[in-house]
Amino acid sequence: EEKVSGLYAHIRKDARHASCLLLFSAASGERMFTDWSMACRDLSDPAVINHPGFSEFLQPGVSDREYFADPTRAHRLLVHFKSVIC
Fold first, then answer.
1. How many beta carbons lie within 10 A of that of residue 74, not counting itself?
2. Pairwise CA distance, residues 6 & 83, whole Å
């Protein structure tokens, strides 16, 4: 937990990242994303936008309130993101 918190604090201080938002934080007895690798998709690509399960969360102007109201929604978004990317 200490290492992850430190890394997140470092990322937040980096000028390349703006408006960082912590969506979900919880302890886990095991790794939740064992084979996670980062990827990037063009969110303006119609193939991405029309993909089942596409989330507009990363689009400008989308409110984060729904994710704060239900923190598990952020987790489900990440799980779906992983299933699409990997």
1. 19
2. 27
pTM tops 0.85, yes or no: no
84 Cβ neighbours under 8 A, 6+ residues apart: 51, 53
State residue 16 phi and psi, 5-degree precision: -75, -10
pLDDT mean over 47-67:
67
With the CA atoms of 70, 74, 75 and 79 taken in that order, what torsion angle do they form, in degrees rounded to the nearest 10? 140
Residue with tokens 């604090």: 9
CA angle 61, 58, 78 (to 5 degrees): 145
Q: Helices H, strands E: what count in the chain?
A: 4, 0
CB atoms within 10 A of CB 53: 10
What the block records as the tokens of 20 is 């960082």
68: exposed, middle or buried (C-beta count within 10 Å: 0-12, 13-18, 19+)?
A: middle
